[in-house]
Amino acid sequence: MKLSTRYNRVNLLTSLVILIITGIIYYVVIHFILTERLDRDLAVEENEIRQYTQTYQKLPLPASYLDQQVSYKEINGDVSNIRDFSYTSYVNPKENEIEPGRSLVTTVNLKGKIYQVTITKSRVESEDLVRIILFITLGVTVVLLLSLILINRFVLSRLWRPFYSILNRMKTFEVTKMETIKEEPTQVDEFRELNESVNAMAKKVRQDYKELKSFTDNASHEMMTPLAVINSKLDSLLQTETFTEQQGHLLEDIYHATGRLSRLHQSLLLLAKIENNIIPDAENIDIQEMLEGKIRQFQELFDKDGLEVRSKLENTEITMSRYLADILLNNLFSNSVRHNHRGGRIDVKLTSNILIISNTGKDKSVQDRIFDRFSKSAESEGMGLGLAISKQICTLYGFELEYSYLDNRHSFKVYFKKSL
Amino acid sequence: MKILVIEDEQALLESILAYFIGEGNICEFASNFASASEKIALYNYDCILLDLGLPDGEGLELLSQLKQLKKKDGVLILSARHSLDDRLAGLDLGADDYLVKPFHLSELKARVSAIVRRKNFDGHNLITFNEIKVDVSAMKTSVSNNQVVLTKKEFDLLVYFLANKNKIVTKNAMAEHLWGDEMDLSNDFDFIYTHVKNLKKKLAEAGGKDYLRSVYGIGYKFGEA
Fold first, then answer.
1. Listed residues B70, B98, B121: the one ending a domain
2. Domain span at residue B201?
3. Which letter does DSSP use for residue B3 in this model?
4. What ipTM does the predicted assembly reach?
5. Does residue B111 share a domain with residue B161?
6. The dihedral formed by the CA atoms of A157, A163, A169 and A173, expressed in degrees to the nearest 10
7. What was the pLDDT predicted at A419?
8. For B219, which residue in chain A has the nearest alpha carbon?
């Protein structure tokens, strides 16, 4: 949920609740005040009737005044001092309508007789007043809510714009590209601070990355010489030719290990180079011809495992470095051979915008981290760098490299144009 | 052939010299820029093995010097830098080949032999070993004047063996030579065996002696037993 949505929700909900409560309180209080006033009027009337009866020793005429009716009833028995306010209905004789009313029932003592006096007043005016007040309150509520929504929608989103802009820049930030996160012009202190912190962080990250990278580069270069020495000494040692069978095997193992080490080393250097984009100019490459060449080149490897290779290639040209194209195809083919089973199949399909290399495979499930460095299946003899390099090469040229597993076949797809 | 090895890493220098000495090769060495520069100016070599990372100077400058002196020495650059820029710059300045460290001595020897052959025979690129004759530029092989038809890989292998006569060549080095070191091959080089077997068979059928033998399963040795 967006911050503004959340804020909006809380804000609107609170405003609504407060306004409803205010409305209710308003209604109750005004109702109470108006009823009080009516009751006071009724009491005044009662008083008048009492004074009249005392002065003239007779009941006033049970007349109807404006919005007020008085009636008398003689009651027998010993009922004294009833005084009771109540809500009743009031029949308006002029308009012949029943309106809400308020009445006071009281008693008057006249010449020893007790009369029950009922004074009824129409409540219509006060009800109208309450209603008007209620409508005004409601109106204000609606207007207030609407303006709150509008403010939140337009003003808030404008206020937050620098934040989202900074966020976007952070999302697109790549440590390998040495660009800074641009300053976002804003008057808001918090955002300015955020911007500064983000830039400071980016700078630090870049710095750390640079140091790490130069360390890796230096380390690899320094590793080269001893490796070369080991290799040449091994070659020299081999020429002395005075080994037992057992020593021969030991030598073989050392050879393998140094071979692996130098390949690993070259792969790491290559990765670093691709990442830093220090690969010479791209050229137009007939990828079909290249694939055919690769299939010939790998023929021995295919034959060794009895792999059947089927290819369906269309004439396609892509623009990339020949050197990297070679490595990419090498890696994909090596992969399809290495993870195949004896007598398996490899299908190669090339159209103008996609290259698919799919193979039958030993292992069923492959980790999601297939393109990560040094991620490899347990029985793999490789270094786990081939696919990382392939991915990196594809990324460099804006290709997309995809892996899928379907019907017992592992497929690698290279989309030459981004599918978007 | 007469060779100058310019290399500052003593251990590596010794190995290279040890590998090249013999068969009438004359090997000299220089382990810094100054002495290398002096030797280049004074003598002529069939091939100069040049390490680019010298402690007291940029190896590429020696190439410029050679050019100024109008010398025709073959040059093979050795570099720890797997950098294409260096490679191109080196080749532009007149180097004949470029080899990245670490390398197999057998590969180095094969490359040096190729350079020397190209320099000396000017297109007539012949290798002779007893009854075996190989015309490298025409890609033709004959044993006691019988033509032998070899595949590309078998031919390359034979030339490689001839350049490394009487040396043990590892399968690892052979695989890298034939398929390139970028191929990320597994350590299982069984398929090389097929090529070696076929080569052996074809040479024998044409009446050649059996010069090839397997050594401890690590590699092969070509030469008189």
1. B121
2. 126-222
3. E
4. 0.84
5. no
6. -140
7. 44
8. A252
> Cβ–Cβ of B219/A238 closer than 8 Å?
yes
Instruction: Work out the number of other CB atoms within 10 angstroms of the CB of residue A182.
Output: 11
Task: Considering only residues A263 and A176, tell me which one the structure prediction assigns the higher pLDDT.
Answer: A263
Single residue among B97, B121, B145 that ends a domain in this structure: B121
Tokens read off for B47: 């091939």
**Domain CATH number, residue B177:** 1.10.10.10
Among A255, A269, A326, select the one facing B218 at the smallest CB separation: A255
Task: Determine the distance from the C-alpha atom of residue A352 to the mean position of all C-alpha atoms in its chain, rounded to a whole number.
Answer: 37
Q: What is the CATH number of the domain that holds B53?
A: 3.40.50.2300
Condensed to tens digits (0 to 9), the pLDDT of residues A317-370 reads: 888 888 888 888 988 888 888 888 888 889 999 988 889 999 888 766 666 677
Position A420 scores a pLDDT of 42
**Chain A environment of B181 (Cβ under 8 Å):** 263, 266
Q: What's the pLDDT score for residue A61?
A: 77
User: Which of A264, A382, A234 is closest to B173 using CA atoms?
Assistant: A234
Subunit contact A235:B183, Cβ cutoff 8 A: no
> CB–CB of A232 and B168 under 8 A?
no
Whether omega before B102 lies within 30 degrees of 0, making that bond cis, reads: yes
Q: Are residues B103 and B25 in the same domain?
A: yes
Residues B109 and B135 in one domain: no
Same domain, B145 and B117: no
Q: Model confidence at A112, in pLDDT bands (50, 70, 90)?
A: confident
pTM of the complete model? 0.64
What length is written for chain B?
Answer: 225
B137 in the same domain as B108: no
Number of domains in chain B: 2
Question: What is the SS3 string spanning A118-178?
Answer: EEEEECHHHHHHHHHHHHHHHHHHHHHHHHHHHHHHHHHHHHHHHHHHHHHHHHCCCCCCC
